[in-house]
Each structure stands twice: as C-alpha cells, then as structure tokens.
Amino acid sequence: MTLTPSRPLLPMTGHTRGNRSAATCHFKCGDACLKAEGSTSTSPSFAAVAEASLSRRNLLLGLGAVAAAAGTVTAQPAAAAPGKGGPGGGAGPAAGTATVGPKGLAFTPIAAVASTVDQMTVPAGYAWKPIISWGDPVVQGAPAFDLDRQSPEAQEKQFGYNNDYLAILPKGRNRALLVSNHEYTNENLMYPGFTSEEALTPEQLRTSMAAHGLSVVQLRRGKDGFWEVEPSKLGRRFTGLSTEFELRGPAAGSDLLKTAKDPSGRRVIGTLNNCAGGTTPWGTVLSGEENFDQYFRGDAAGDPRNRDTYGLVDKDGEVGNGRYWYKADDRFDVVKTPNEINRFGWIVEVDPHDPRSTPVKHTAMGRFKHEGATTIVAKKGNVVAYMGDDTADQHLYKFVSRDRVGKGGKGGRSELLDAGDLYVARFSAEGDVTTDRDGTGEWIPLTKDGRSAVPGMSMEEVLVFTRAAAAKVGATPMDRPEDVEPDPRTGYVYIACTNNKSRKAAGPANPRPANKDGHVIELREQGDDATGTRFDWSLLLVCGDPADPTTYFSGFPADAVSPISCPDNVAFDAGQPGLWVSTDGAPSAIKRNDALHYVPLTGAERGRVSQFLAVPAGAETCGPWIDAADGSVFVNVQHPGEVDGALVDRPVSTFPYTDASKRTPRPSTVQVRRTGR
Ligand code: FEO
Ligand code: CA
Ligand code: CA
User: Fold this and answer.
1) Is the CB of 627 under 6 A from ligand 1?
2) What are the tens digits of pLDDT across the range 118-155?
3) pLDDT value for 2
4) Cα–Cα distance measured from residue 454 to residue 462, given in angstroms and rounded to the nearest whole number
5) Does ligand 1 have an atom closer than 6 angstroms to the CB of 371?
6) Could you tell me the pTM of the whole model?
7) Is residue 497 within 6 Å of ligand 1 at its C-beta?
8) 8 A C-beta contact, residue 12 and residue 645
9) Bridge-partner residues for 620, per DSSP?
10) In contact, 357 and 349? CB cutoff 8 Å
C-alpha cells in the first residue's frame, strides 16, 4: 500500500520510500517524498557536476583504481555489556585493532551494527549513560514522566520528544547548560492505545505540540564524571504550543506575516520541527525550523508559493491533513489562517543564559526547510552563517552580516543577524585540475544591501519565499544538504548531503543513478574570505558500503574504512582537529544501525572513516557534541524504535532501558565517556 498524508497511519508493513521506512517518512518529514517540491532551477544539478568531477578525478588522479579495489569487510566483535561496549552485528571496518581518533578520544573502531540490534554500542574502554529522556522534568516543579498521565501542561515542563540538535555549553568545570532541539513526535510510540492520527484527541494533539521545540537544562558533574541534570531556574522549555517568538529582520511586519490574531506580523506562537543548529559567538543557540509544512492542512486552491514550493500538496495533488492539528487550533488550517504557515520555516535564536529572554525568528536568513545554521566570524569581522535546505534538489545558502564584531567575536549580539546579505550557491565542475580541488562555485546574492537582488521579487517575497528566489537565480539543486559547518581551525566548510534517491545520474563515471548513501563536500572560500562570492570545492566522502565501488574516501583505501551511509550532522571539537559525522538512514540503506564516525581531514589519514558508536534499533544519531578534553562524546538518540508497525506495548526498542518489560522507547541525550585505556 502507499500511504498518503490524508489516510490513517497504521498498519505499515514493509513499505519504504527512498531510504526510509514509512513510519520515518511520515513522522519525520511529513511524507516529503510524496510531494512535489522540486527546484525549478535550470542550473545543472549537483549530481551532474559531481559526476563530471568524479570522472575527471578518477581519470587524472588514478582514483578509479582505489574505488575499484574495494576491500572485504570483516566483523569485529566487541564486549557486550549494558552501558559498555556492545555487540558487533555484521560487516564492519577492516581497521583491525588499530587505534584512531584525536587526543583525548582515542578509540578502536567498532564494527557496524546490524539494524536489528536494540542496543547502544560504544568502543571498548568507553561507557555510556542517558542524561535526560523524553518526559523528564526540565522546568522546576515539573511532574515526573508518566506514560499513562500525559497532558499538555505536564509536557510543557518536561523534556520534549525526538531530541535532535544538542549543545553542552560549559559554565565552569562542574556545571554546564544542555540545549536540545525537539524536532517531531511519534504518536504511535507516545500514546497507549494509539490507533491512528485521525483519532487523536485535541488534548493529545496539544501534548504533541508541547513536545516540539527546545529544552534548556542545567547540568552538574556527578561523582563518576558523567553529567546529570540539576534543578535550576535556567530550566526552560520553548514549545510549539505556547512560547511567543519575535519575528525580526527585514520581513518582520510584512503583510505576508500578518494574521487576524497578530496584525503586527511580529509575534508568533511556537517553533516547529527544530532540526539541527549551532552556537553564536555571543553564546546563544540557532535552530532550524525544517519540515514545517506537515503541520498545516493545505489548500489546493491556495497561495501556489506555499502549495507547490513548500509541499502542501502531494504529487497526486492530494492536500495534506496537517497531522490533524487543525482540529485543536484553527491556525493550522491554511484555508482559515492563510498566513500562519509563513511564520514558520525560519532560523530561530534562543538565549539559554537568560530565562526571561524572548526568542527570535530571523527573517534576514530566509525561509525554507532549514536544517540548521552554523556561524563563523570572517577575517573582516562579519558574522557568516552557513545553512542547508534539506529537501531533494533544494539549495545551499549563506548569510553575511552587514555589521562586524571585534577580535574573538567581541561585541557580538543577536541584532547582527537582522541585517545582511543572503546568498545561494551555484557549483561548477570547472576548476584547476592541477590542484586537488574538484571544482569552483559562486555565491549568488538573493538580497544585497537591504534590497532584493532577484528580478521580479520584492525583498519580502525573497525572504518569505526563498526557495522560489533561489531557483530563479539558477542555484544548484543539491542532494538534500543537511548540516553545513565550518571547521573553526581552517574555515573550510563541510556540507553533509544525506541522499537523493530521485537523482537522475548521467554518465558511467558516477554509478549512482539514485544517491542512496549521500556524500560530504568540502568547500573552501577563495582567499579564505568567508564574506566572498567565489569558492572551490571537493568531494571529501562519497558514502556507502566500502565494498561498493562508487564510494570514495578522499583516496584513503576503502578496505580500511567503516561503512558510512546518509551523513546528516557534522561537528568539530573545540580543541582537537577532525570531523565527526553522524548518520540518518543507514538501517534502510545498508541494514546497519545509524552511527557516529570520526574522519581526519589532513595528511595521509584524510578520509579515513572510523565508526565510534551505533545507536539502537530504529534510532538516528543526532546532535553530536564533542569534548575531547573531557574524553566525552554526547549524542541525541532520536526516534529509537521508529519501525513500521511499532506501538506502545508493542515496541521494537525499549531504549534507554535495559529492562525489556518497559512499554515504549524514550528518545534521550546520551553521554559516552572514556573510562578505560
Ligand atoms: Fe531533520 Fe534534515 O533532518
Ligand atoms: Ca538532520
Ligand atoms: Ca535527519
């Protein structure tokens, strides 16, 4: 059967779309694969550019031989004990017992874990503990988690569902603030007796709204070195249900953003589908509103700029049901409140240090399905934010602030994000083939000096309907750009393109007619100027099972790397070099649990992918936060047990419990810590 957004959810048996189970596709992306959101850009797709590049590299640099010499992968058993290294489950790295990793986080790569294993798997000499789970108290006075007594009021004070982006912000040696996104909800794993989304009560719908957003909790270091939650006045929830956000920047107050309840066009209730994020030089957190369209009942006759470009109808013209949220609140019905949807799809900023601060939605950074935003201070002092639009054939962006900060980010403040230029990327295969760069590219302005740079579109239209603006100027359609993050040491930018099954490949040099495993691009701004408009780029990783001859690991031998599929989040440690890459989709793509990998970026080890951990069955590895000096890695274990047909009392995962009698899994933040040598 084929599910559509307007039909009841269950049962779901064996149906997959692209790399995802029907459950993942439905809950996570609002059935994005069924919708028509393709770029109308006439620019050659990134696929075509990358194919040409790979072909040239293989020819000129002899990389074809490396790719063809795919090695045999060997299973590597590991100790199996709850909370310590877990079971290997199948194909794994051929790295043997070699130790890899940066100073403070040396490890022996684990074998890739079969997607049926419901266990957190970490390297030998490391142990793990959950810090906080869905439903745990966040705000002082919150009730303890009780699966059978959920309410919007309780959930608004408790840790939300499906934690994604994660930041652990130090407050001295023994205190820290944990900031986490809560991207979406799995109602079938939340509510006992769930039968279908259509049958959810308004109370349950409001509880789900409250389970979206972000959480802030204070941590203290426990006696064993692991962090634990400490009740604090800084404990705070931002929710989809009731938190007021201020719209700021050039589009704030626009007619496109006004509603009957907010004639100012500047005050929005709630944030939704917060996926990845980043920190700012002034200590706040940015978070991307991603697949926001799924909460709105569409209007086939409505504004085509939302209907077609942002996915309010599916490929058959069927109008989405918005998860039935309109039954609890009219603003989620596009017919009744046409502009409400325009108030979502932004980069939001929260200040975890000030519990009374009003969170912001930044219109200068454009509206699309924002994966996240990461910042770097350019040499000239401008703050530059890199951003991906995570939908097949959508685009890569950067924002350059008009105003500047002093050395070390001095003088940085939220208002820097209110004024600046928004650019979108166009990639070219043209480049200097005598270098190790694969091609060049151009940042095309969408806004410049406070004005629209797109013919036929006003400034407000460019910022509210940014996808249309990007397509109009010939931006390159990408293979779902997710996290985009600059290396704080070099300024080189790493772009995780998670996959694109619908990609039409051309040419024998790229044997990936449907990119099911994704790739990672390295972008270097020309002249090392993050404010500039020209860049060079290379493929760092072309992901997949190393036995697949189409994979590429920057020339590192394929028989000595871990399998890696569907890169999603990328992260750097403040003190040690190297890229950390987490994955979302490996269970479907390569039948392995999602993972966290470490990849050196320089020298002979460049491209050597080594698997650090695996999350339990049905889960995705999110929000890696690396603290090598502490010997700690933090990950958000998102949607454990998200497998077709799973229900409360019929789960396929009981994570983070080791007691299999537990009734349902709970998304959790986990600390992995070095405990041995
Ligand atoms: Fe929410 Fe792009 O992953
Ligand atoms: Ca993501
Ligand atoms: Ca993801």
Assistant:
1) no
2) 999 999 999 999 999 999 999 999 999 999 999 999 99
3) 26
4) 7
5) yes
6) 0.91
7) no
8) yes
9) 638
10) no
Residue 491 binned pLDDT confidence (cut-offs 50, 70, 90): very high
* CB of 289 closer than 6 angstroms to any ligand 1 atom: no
Atom of ligand 1 nearest to the CA of 584: 3
**Cα distance between residue 202 and residue 227, in whole Å:** 37
Tokens 């502490």 sit at which residue? Answer: 630
CA–centroid distance, 57 to ligand 2, in Å, is 30
Bigger pLDDT: 166 vs 69: 166
Q: Which atom of ligand 1 is nearest to the CA of 369?
A: 2
Which candidate, 578, 579, 618, 612, places its Cα nearest to that of 596?
612
276 CA from centroid of ligand 2 (Å): 6
Least confident segment among 381-385, 397-401, 403-407, 624-628: 403-407
Q: How far, in Å, CA of 210 to CA of 212, rounded?
A: 5
Distance set, CA 307 to CA 82, 255, 258, 301 (Å): 48, 18, 18, 8
pLDDT: which is higher, 247 or 79: 247
Helix (H, G, I), strand (E, B) or coil at 528: helix
> How far apart are the C-alpha atoms of 572 and 2, rounded to whole Å?
40
Task: Report whether residue 483 contacts ligand 1, using a CB cutoff of 6 Å.
Answer: no
Cβ(340)–Cβ(255) under 8 Å?
no
Residue 34 has pLDDT above 80, yes or no: no
Indicate the SS3 state at residue 181. Answer: strand
**How far is it, in rounded angstroms, from Cα 644 to Cα 8?**
13
**Do 462 and 454 contact (CB within 8 A), yes or no?**
yes
**Residue of 582 and 433 predicted with greater confidence:** 582
Any idea what the Cα angle at residue 91 is, between residues 88 and 94, rounded to 5°? Answer: 95
Q: Whole-angstrom Cα distance, residue 346 to residue 348?
A: 6
Tell me the β-bridge partners of 428.
440
Average pLDDT, the chain: 87
CA angle centred on 371, ends 110 and 339, rounded to 5°: 155
pLDDT in tens, 76-99: 323 223 354 433 333 444 445 579
